[in-house]
Amino acid sequence: MTPGAKVRDVMTTEVHGISEDSSVFTAAKAMADRRINSLVVWPTERDEPYGILTSSDVVDALADGRDLEQMRVAELCTSPLALVTPGVRVRDAARMMRRLNVRHLAVFNGKTIVGLVSNFDLVRAVAGFAGPRAAAEARDVLVS
Fold first, then answer.
1. C-alpha span between 70 and 24 (Å, rounded)
2. Which domains does the chain have, with CATH numbers?
3. Contact in structure between 113 and 13 (CB atoms under 8 Å)
4. Cα–Cα distance between 104 and 31 in angstroms, integer?
5. What would the DSSP string read from start to end of 85-98?
6. How far is residue 107's CA from residue 41's CA, in Å, rounded to a whole number?
7. Residues near 117 by beta carbon (within 8 Å), at least 6 away in sequence
8. Do the beta carbons of residue 49 and residue 75 sit within 8 Å?
9. What is the per-residue pLDDT across 117-129, written as a single tens digit (0 to 9) for each?
10. Spans of the chain below 70 pLDDT
11. Distance of CA 61 to the CA centre of its chain
12. Cβ–Cβ under 8 Å, residues 97 and 50
């Protein structure tokens, strides 16, 4: 992978979702069953995503002693989604994550969600960079 890599090169295209009315317990089970760490949250009455629920959100609620079976996804998810387009450079996506203090960006092409890019996707991109200059550039982005 080159330093000019785009989000489309590193994003996950298989996007899993859940209704905002679902319990956090149901969401946690879905994440565990699918071995994923986030779900896009969909409202019951609209066709566009509402937010994102991550495994970190679930762990925080658990640590706070919240009842995950009674708690609704809408109460815990991050909303609105942080959005990016497929043509954005990986470096710019990393900067956006840092600026917004998020670990996931929803990738949209027009009004359609086409993927997710996570901080771990960016770490994998760094590991795929060839050459010391590219690795140094990627390292600088992620630690600065």
1. 8
2. 7-143 (3.10.580.10)
3. no
4. 15
5. -TTSBHHHHHHHHH
6. 14
7. 7, 10, 11, 12, 84, 93, 104, 105, 107
8. no
9. 999 888 888 777 5
10. 1-3, 129-144
11. 18
12. no
